[in-house]
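## tool: complex_structure
## caller: assistant
## args:
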Amino acid sequence: MADIWLTSLITETPQEGFELAITLSRRGVKYTQPNTEVLHKLRSEYAENASDLTAASQVVAINFQTVACCQ
Amino acid sequence: MADIWLTSLITETPQEGFELAITLSRRGVKYTQPNTEVLHKLRSEYAENASDLTAASQVVAINFQTVACCQ
Amino acid sequence: MADIWLTSLITETPQEGFELAITLSRRGVKYTQPNTEVLHKLRSEYAENASDLTAASQVVAINFQTVACCQ
Amino acid sequence: MADIWLTSLITETPQEGFELAITLSRRGVKYTQPNTEVLHKLRSEYAENASDLTAASQVVAINFQTVACCQ
Amino acid sequence: MADIWLTSLITETPQEGFELAITLSRRGVKYTQPNTEVLHKLRSEYAENASDLTAASQVVAINFQTVACCQ
Amino acid sequence: MADIWLTSLITETPQEGFELAITLSRRGVKYTQPNTEVLHKLRSEYAENASDLTAASQVVAINFQTVACCQ
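## result:
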């Protein structure tokens, strides 16, 4: 994965920070499963499962702590 | 999701901070599953499941750390 | 939920801080499932399940970090 | 639960801090399930389950962060 | 495991920090299961499971907090 | 458990810190299940289970935060 996708943890608004946390959470998945097709298929499944959605929100919460701490 | 929903992490009281943590937790879910109808259906299910409720409370706890740290 | 239940994170003793963490954990559940009757029924179930009890203790631990950090 | 069990988070050695973290983790369970008999029965079960033991160790790790931060 | 694989937590860019967090997460697994063949087999399984991928992303998020805090 | 196994959280290198985090994670398990024979049997099982390995890596990540923060 040679592309540059993260150059700074500083964001202009808290909401942009939250959205960066979402990006970080998805990237954490993508490093393990880089196949976009597989990811789309899985997403359509876990997006209808309450436990999976809560788990996803938890990863976002952890990454948001990191982003918020760096402001 | 072009709407602005988070402009500050500063709250006037700790309870407002806790309620902001709840908002952050729900938004973390909504970025993955934006369909309100699906969310309502899932909610009626996991709101009767002890493990799911504890998991939801955990996400709130993590987001509350972030909010509390920013005061 | 218009009642005021959290006015400060400062406690007089560490144990009171721990007990506040328990309150925060239960409130995190109650915002999702406000029906007291349902909560009592679920509690009698998960209070006999080791995984659920450990998960509950984990939420308390996270909230206790927040309380301890604010002293 | 009127007994006093936590008067300070300061410990003399790191190991005593780790053992305090274990106490905190068990207390987190006990506030939800105060019945000692039930707790002993559950313990004999989850002490033979790898996932449950890892989950227990995770709660200890979180509480140990709190204790270590307060030294 | 006598090899030296971690000499510093300081990275030149946030993205390198995130990639170090991925390394830390994998090493955390490898200390428990050092057999590379077993790891490859397991990876091909959990890389197609949404819950496992989210859990992996969560470990990365926690390690990324550590790396980000050390910059 | 009268033996002294933790006298300091300070390590000479980050890698030693990571290995201390592994020790802490295992000790967290051992306080709940001190029977070495049972632990060995469980280990051979969860070392071949992706979810269990990720969970183990997560406990290491949390303990590594504690160790890194104390340097």
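## assistant note: The interface with chain D takes residues 13-15, 18-19, 22, 43, 46-51, 53-58, 60-62, 64-65, 68-69 of chain C (CB under 8 Å). Helices of chain C lie at 14-30, 36-46, 50-69. Handing back to user.
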